[in-house]
Amino acid sequence: MHDFRGLALMLAVSIGLAGCASDSTSARQAAAPATTTTTTTTIAPTVSSAVIPDTTEPPPAAEEPERRAFNGRSVPRSPVDAAETAQLLADVEVGLRDDSLDATAHADLGHQEQVLIRTLTRHPDWVDEVLTLSTPEVARVLELHLSARTELSSLHTAPPLASIPAWEIIEPEPLDNLISHYRAAEAATGIEWQILAAINLIETGFGRIDGLSSAGAQGPMQFLPTTWDEVSEGGNIDDPGDAIAGAARYLVRRGALDDIRAGLWGYNNSDNYVNAVLTYAELIRLDERSLRGIYNWEIYVGTEAGTLWLPVGFRAEEPLPAADYAAENPWAETLPPSAS
Fold this sequence. Notes:
Helices cover 46% and strands 6% of the residues. The protein is built from 13 helices and six strands.
């Protein structure tokens, strides 16, 4: 139905979600916050012959400034071992389910979750220990994430890219709005809304990727214009609500109400793709608040210069040499080294 290569390059190497397993505009790193050093003055003793121990404490060491992307977003931590991964994952999953936290906090937690999952695909030898250290609830969430990421990684067999595609990374539709679109499409067609959410995640990171090339698939659900004409009912291919409704209608046309796997195969001719969609849908059914995590996953692309983060605000009118982007934005590589 559409050209999936753009997404596979992003997610199979990194989604994280596309978390699932493999990846300019001139931008500057935000200036590091100023640090203050306190100096202590010592008064000389009044008796020169007295031996007085020096009790002056050295000034506190300045903390390393927090790394931030050019749009001000903080760079997530890269764990150094399984124990740290398990602790960070536990904290993240609790935070994502905390209704008292604001959207900014959930965004940082979601990005941290993404990096943790992608880290475990680089260090599969850590997985058993992390699962052992996790609660049953967190372990089940992690197993689903790793399963979906493994499926997506199988979609990508091409070598890393020399250049970042001509993309603009934009803010996605607010999560509550997207959920309303998914539910409306389910009510109209019978296609489960969790399936539509999973497709939206895998295709464009919930609409973050805006391809600047006129060729190939378009919009948040990645329709070829010819296919869109068949299911659009006059809608706009770039509008999230219209595109989600069109995707549901397309799945119905491909027999998804009788056989969801057959319908998804029509969307993308790959068992790995089908398995990934179904796994993410299961994760969302397990706990709708899981969407807070995956909704906030960032866009990564696998390149010869590393797997690089493209934050909201990135824009390349034409393919951008990955080495140039990495040199200008050293925070963009957030993963620890792969296991040897």
